[in-house]
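Class, discuss our next protein.
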Amino acid sequence: MSLFDRAIVKLLPAVPRPVVGRLSARYIAGPSLDDAVRVVQRLNAKGKVATIDVLGEEVATADEARAIAGQYHDVLARIDAQGLEANVSVKLTGLGLEVDDDLCRENLEAVVLDAAARGNFVRIDMEDSSTTDRTLALYRELRDAGHTNVGVVVQAYLRRTQADLAGLENLRLCKGIYVEPPYLAFRDPDEIRASFVRCLEAIVAQGAYVGIATHDEVLIREALRIVSEAGLDRDRYEFQMLLGVRPDRADELVAAGHRLRVYVPYGTHWYEYSVRRLQENPALAGTVARDTVTRGARTLRRR
């Protein structure tokens, strides 16, 4: 991490909300579902599919958790009504995981059933390591009950992940961004990349569908090698990227015939999401800040 990146992270809590909003505007659809729908329509027009995420993972009451679940029902209805190429991604803490296990299960199952009735799919996101066992248990419980339209996320930087893969049917594989102690997670970038490759090879070998979620060019090239050498049909995997990150590379993957999904977050909790994500990923914080300064300088030169 550069000194500039560290400085940006330390300054974030003191940065005014409008400035954080400008820093993160490319990476969040906006505060409303209408904003998310417009972004997904633009992505679909470019041959990309999407995953819509409702921001608001930290809830403290059952009513808040039910409100988040209600927003997901609204999202699924809009996807269905407008024929969008999109599914949804949920964080269990947003559905009440830290409030009550039964409440979370009830909210999650209701969203999964709604999606199934509409021919859609629900991805259960992975959060910090304190939630990993409960997240995998709920995923397996739903799959065992016959809900085939649900998948889960695994994080390559966790040392446990390769052992967790057995029996998982539909996965998003990402590096992982939460701050974890070294006895739980790899810290060295090369170790994380090596774990990502091992996990992807294992997922492909066991025949599970995989969303390859990375912006790392080294890992994109490795993933292309792995799926090619395995002779994997293109309906058995997809690449996934965050909104606003490496869109040109995403265009190249689409042009080459690969399925490409973009993660589209929206909601009124955009500030908390932005600060948390930028703090958890200092390199991204620095990149966003540099990009904002560069675009500002270009604007001034044009005046």
About this structure: DSSP finds twelve helices and eight strands in the chain.
